[in-house]
Design goal:
The chain is of the alpha/beta class. Helix content is 46%, strand content 27%. It starts with a helix and ends with a helix.
């Protein structure tokens, strides 16, 4: 019941504010909006009295307002006054159409005035004045005037689609307003067998030949036979590049880690420094030679520091100095190891040059170089000693093997990626507002 009450409250508020918005528009003198909102409400609820009252008052005032505006503009000297008059009659026609589609509105305004004939007349007049202005601008020559002409012809076609030969005029103005850029990509030198920049060049062409950021800029391929008079030539070429420059180095480091659990000893031995503890001893001169020994508790830490381990060596599992069952505790010490890390880097880099040449003056109007680099890294290693001294990263490296780098073509593509990103950003910046 509570939810139902909230629902009806929200419904009432929606109706109140919907009507209020049309009333507010009426009170502020926006008669057109007041009429349209009121009619919209009456479509949903033909018996909406408040919306009906707004429509009854707003309709005649909207008609009077736009008729007065049309008469005032007719008497004025504005070159494009017919377009403005057309806009006024377009509003009146919109009102007429909306009322005719609303039974609730028709009960209040049973005979709305149709201004279709006036609208049709001024559509032709508005198209004519824009068409004339377009021809005049086009006759002045130059890209900027052609842009102005294009806008005039487009508006003429909006007022009266297909007016005279306006479609052809739009295309003529568009062509003359368009900055035509010939794209010339210099092939990559062939001194590296099997290396091709085709993938990179195809990406650039895919972007340029589908360029949408500025409708008055178009890029052409050298294969395009339709281009006879480019305004600019965009030249792209690699000034320098290297693929597969290899560098290998080795790092050897002594690593330690404190407070490592080295093993367990009988709890009773902690108070008896002479009690024997079984360890696996590693010969310092030959790490492969191991021997199970018994050492005193007092000498245990020294052996642990040298890499020995508590407990018998493999194969001597039966040997122990403890014969009775008792409690054992952890023995902590410092783990030590010698870690060898091999690093192989394969560096590939290049420098792309971009030039823009103005064909009228035959001068370079822009020149910039874009660097790119890709470094392939392979790490592998080994260690001697206690692996517990190593970090997780070092352990991972120690498990790796030396790997072969990617093929040169892959390396070439990778270092081109950052070049492509820089190049596209620069092209967007240069041609956005041209």
């Amino acid at each position: 019941m509570k939810n139902l009450t909230v629902y009806f409250l929200l419904l009432s508020l929606t109706a109140f504010w919907g009507c209020g918005s049309s009333k507010k528009s009426f009170q502020t003198g926006d008669y057109y909006t007041a009429v349209m909102k009121a009619v919209s409400k009456l479509k949903k609820n033909p018996n909406n009295k408040k919306s009906g009252e707004v429509l009854r008052q707003a309709y005649p005032m909207a008609v009077k307002y736009y008729l007065d505006e049309a008469e005032r503009m007719e008497a004025g000297n504005d070159r494009f006054k017919n377009g403005n008059i057309y806009d006024a009659y377009q509003k009146l026609s919109n009102i007429y159409d909306e009322i005719r589609r609303s039974p609730g509105a028709l009960r209040i305004i049973p005979d709305p005035k149709d201004y279709y004939d006036r609208l049709k007349y001024y559509a032709r007049e508005a198209a004519g004045e824009r068409y004339t202005a377009g021809e005049e601008a086009l006759a002045l020559g130059g890209r900027q005037n052609a842009m102005v002409a294009y806008e005039h012809f487009a508006k003429a076609d909006m007022y009266l689609p297909g007016y005279l030969d306006v479609k052809d005029k739009i295309e003529e103005a568009r062509y003359k307003a368009t900055l035509k850029v010939l794209v010339r990509q210099i092939p990559v030198p062939s001194f590296q067998a099997g290396l091709s920049a085709q993938f990179f060049q195809d990406q650039i062409e895919q972007y340029l030949f589908n360029y949408k950021d500025n409708e008055f800029v178009r890029f052409y391929s050298e294969r395009d036979q339709n281009l006879k008079d480019p305004d600019q030539i965009l030249i792209l070429q690699f000034d320098d590049f290297v693929v597969g420059q290899m560098n290998t180095r080795e790092k050897i480091m002594e690593v330690t880690k404190d407070s490592v659990i080295m093993g367990k000893v009988p709890k009773s031995s902690l108070g008896n420094q002479e009690q024997k503890i079984v360890i696996c001893h590693t010969d310092p001169a030959n790490k492969q030679v191991k021997q199970t020994l018994e050492v005193s508790v007092s000498a245990l830490q020294k052996h642990l520091d040298h890499g020995d381990k508590i407990g018998p060596c493999n194969g001597d599992q039966g040997r122990t100095s403890q014969t009775r069952k008792e409690e054992y505790v952890n023995v902590y010490g410092t783990a030590k190891a010698t870690f060898r890390e091999n690093i192989r880097e394969v560096v590939s880099r290049g420098l792309l040059s971009m030039q823009i040449i103005d064909t009228q003056s035959n001068t370079v109007v822009f020149h910039e170089k874009f660097p790119g680099e890709f470094v392939w890294v392979n790490k592998w290693g080994s260690f001697n000693g206690d692996e517990r001294a190593l970090t997780e990263e070092q352990l991972q490296i120690a498990r790796q093997q030396a790997a072969m780098p990617p093929p040169p073509q892959t390396l070439f593509i990778e270092f081109c990626r950052p070049i492509y990103s820089q190049l596209i950003r620069k092209i967007k910046k240069i041609y956005r507002d041209m």
